[in-house]
Design brief:
Layout lengths: L2 H28 L3 H9 L6 E3 L5 E3 L15 E5 L4 E5 L5 E6 L10 E4 L2 E7 L5 E11 L2 E8 L15 E3 L2 H10 L5 E5 L1
Parallel strand pairs: 3-11, 9-10
Antiparallel strand pairs: 1-2, 3-4, 4-5, 6-11, 7-8, 8-9
Length: about 190
C-alpha cells in the first residue's frame, strides 16, 4: 500500500474513533442519572432555606413529623384524618411524606403488610393507574395506594366503593420503590 493511501486510512480511522467517542459522550450525557434522581427524590420533602439578595431568610415549613403512635421500624404510615402518608426508614425517620386523596372505602385503624403490587392496571373507577401497592381488604374492596397515569385525583363519590388511595405520580413511584411485598403499613386516625 502506498504511503499516501496508508495516511488516508489512518486519518479516516482516527476520525471514526473521534465521531464514535463524541456520540458515546452525547448518549451518556442525555441518559437519565437514576442514582442522582433517587437522591433528589429522597430529599424532596426536606425543608429548604430560601434567602433573598439582602440576606433575610424565608424558610419553607418543616415537613410533617412522623406520628408518635405509629409504631417502630421501617413502615408506611397512613393517616386517615390528615390524608397523609409517611415513608419511615428503619431508624424511625421520615424519608418522605406527602398528601393523598383517600379512597371511598377506608381501612380500619391497625397494622397491615403489603400483600400485592402491580406496575400498571385499570383502577376500580376505570382510570389507568400505576405503582399499585395493596395492603388491605374491606367488605370485598381491595385497599391500596396508586397513582393515576393522567395525574388526576378522584372526586369523593360515596356511590362507588373504591379502595384506591391516590397520590401524585412522583409520590407513587417513591412509595413503590419503598414498599416491597411484606412492608408494614400502619393506618392511624
Amino acid at each position: 500500500m502506498p504511503a499516501k493511501s496508508s495516511t488516508i486510512v489512518t486519518a479516516l480511522t482516527a476520525a471514526a474513533v473521534v465521531v464514535v467517542g463524541v456520540l458515546g459522550y452525547q448518549a451518556a450525557a442525555s441518559a437519565p442519572d437514576t442514582l442522582t434522581q433517587a437522591r433528589k427524590d429522597s430529599h424532596r420533602s426536606a425543608p429548604k432555606d430560601h434567602s433573598d439578595r439582602r440576606g433575610t431568610k424565608d424558610k419553607a415549613p418543616a415537613p410533617a413529623p412522623v406520628p408518635a403512635a405509629s409504631g417502630k421500624g421501617q413502615r408506611v404510615v397512613y393517616s386517615l384524618g390528615d390524608k397523609r402518608v409517611w415513608l419511615v426508614g428503619p431508624k424511625g425517620k421520615a424519608l418522605r411524606t406527602f398528601t393523598v386523596a383517600p379512597s371511598a372505602v377506608s381501612p380500619p385503624l391497625g397494622t397491615y403488610a403489603v400483600s400485592s403490587r402491580s406496575v400498571s392496571v385499570t383502577g376500580s373507577d376505570g382510570i389507568a393507574i400505576e405503582h399499585v401497592v395493596r395492603f388491605a381488604n374491606v367488605d370485598s374492596v381491595t385497599i391500596g395506594f396508586s397513582a393515576a397515569v393522567d395525574g388526576s385525583r378522584p372526586d369523593p363519590d360515596s356511590s362507588k366503593k373504591t379502595g384506591g388511595i391516590r397520590e401524585s405520580r412522583d409520590d407513587g413511584k417513591a412509595l413503590w420503590d419503598f414498599a416491597l411485598h411484606g412492608t408494614k403499613v400502619v393506618v392511624i386516625a
